[in-house]
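Request:
Um, any thoughts?
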Amino acid sequence: MASKKSLKEEKNENKSASYTAQDITVLEGLDPVRKRPGMYIGTTDIAGLHHLVWEVVDNAIDEAMAGHAQNITVELLADNRVAVTDDGRGIPVEKHKQTKKSTLETVLTVLHAGGKFGGAGYKVSGGLHGVGVSVVNALSEYLCAEVRRDGFLYTQEYQRGKPKGAVKKVGKAKGSGTKIIFQPDPEIFETVEFNSKTIIERLRRQAFLTKGVHLNFIDHRTTPAIYYGFYFDGGLLSFIRHLNESSKQLQSEIFYVEKSAEDVQVEAAFIYNDEIETQELSFANNIHNPDGGMHLTGFRSALTRTLNSWAIENNYLKEKDSNLTGDDIREGLVAIVSVKLKDPQFEGQTKGRLGSPEARTATESIVSEALRNFLERNSRDAGKILEKCLLAAKARKAAKAARDTVLRKGALDGLALPGKLTDCITKHPEEAELFIVEGDSAGGSAKMGRNKFTQAILPLRGKPLNVEKARIDRMLANKEIKSLVVAFGTAIAENFDIEKLRYHKIIILSDADVDGRHITTLLLTLFYRYFPKLIENGHIYVAQPPLYSITQGKETHYIFNEDEKEGMMKSIAKAKGLDPETATEEELKKMKINVQRYKGLGEMNADQLAETTMDSANRVLKQINVADAEEADKLFNVLMGEEVAPRSKFIQSHALSARNLDV
């Protein structure tokens, strides 16, 4: 047994743990970025990887906004390299008076060095922080900068932020511009493989916001290469039409205004459709602000105040009536607000929210005046908009009554859980799992095969209501959905409280067939529309039950897809001395190889279901997330909405790429 240390020994140890100047670490140059990349790009997962592309593209967009670039090209090259080229002025290469190095090297190696902190380089820019390309350099295994300027081509190469040599004058060159080629560092990122769809959508959006500029994308990783080109003269008008193409618009004319006030250039557009969802996008200096900010606040305030005033003046509302709320007015709204200002104040390097007060006052005054003129010029559109808002207000009151009824009933019943819910024992939500199971038969197997301590089972009867086509009052009248709401414990809509969530894993467990996929889609629509925080916080999962079991003697293998089955069958055939390319299932069956296709969970025994789909040691779960909410919203509208034509078009366009069809 170790003896206790004396007080004197402890004091001597404390003295040896020094805290002097030599204990202070100074990270120089780009070392802080490599040490704490999350501080600069938010994360080191796939989102952080693509943030590198955005930083370089944003610099090129700044050149376009300043009127110096007309063409921007993003290329995905071999070895996970990316090339971003613009025909702007080209980064200066002459010696910088402060750093005594080439200006190009200064921009690539010094944080907060750029043309956006003063001088006449840029009136407005998205890369305000000036750390963009230097951060990309720091987090890249390799980077090469090529500059065409003053009739010559200059290059410089880097390895993990360190120059491999000085800037070189390679030779003569026509035109001007900058090309940045970089290869993300696998030591930093969880993955270094870029997603072409993510980049394409970003470039399309930038083309809408920067009218008159060509944005091109080339993916050289495939043969032949994939090419996309974007160019829009209409700006936000084109953007609105794109966002609303799958919905029926109420207005004959899109609201649009572009004007400056208080040194802030404001561009805004909106249209109403017959949906109940709202789409609002906000941008500052062409940077998407997913969390909104002052410009969006100003737009909402102008919209709410002006429409309420117009409604009273034109007898849609009486003075004594309660005003339309912001939620009433935004139902079915598709809106874009874009501002350009000299010194925008963003929250964080990822620029998720705009905090500049002048953006609010400028947007509010400009939109208020333009909207009043719009309503006066387009009285028929004004009437349709207000009828839509009044209907939303009526539905809001009905929905509130329905919600109150659900909550009040729950309170009177002592917060009774649904009768068909088989709850788990644990009272700790972080340990608890709720399986939403298709049908009573599968529900019975799941109940017998579950871990009673952590796993709860809620069977659903029939297909859930398609909430994309239903208001909340009708939705809450649906017995199956009401059971889900009460089981979650979070309530819904403005009463939603994620802190009251009773299960931190909510798992959809449906059959591996078309009907099962349909049920999963309906449930995901419900979660996306009315419980988005559950998706955002990573609480929603889809279980992956096996498609087949292959039994050979006493061994049973569970197979989850057709490719896996084919590989297993070839392996068994080879082991049995058969030609794996020509052996048939009939031949294998004669050798006592049994192949069973599971059409439904109810066909599985409780122990099979538990082993393959519920046991955390063996199961396969897909966590649901929404990487691009705007695109997801559009797809939900197409697939689950009222309009048939967009859905038919989608099916026809994607018919050849369909998978997992039962035939």
Remarks:
- The chain has three domains: 31-230, 236-396, 417-545+624-641.
- Residues 1-8, 14-27, 115-121, 410-415 have pLDDT under 50 and may be disordered.
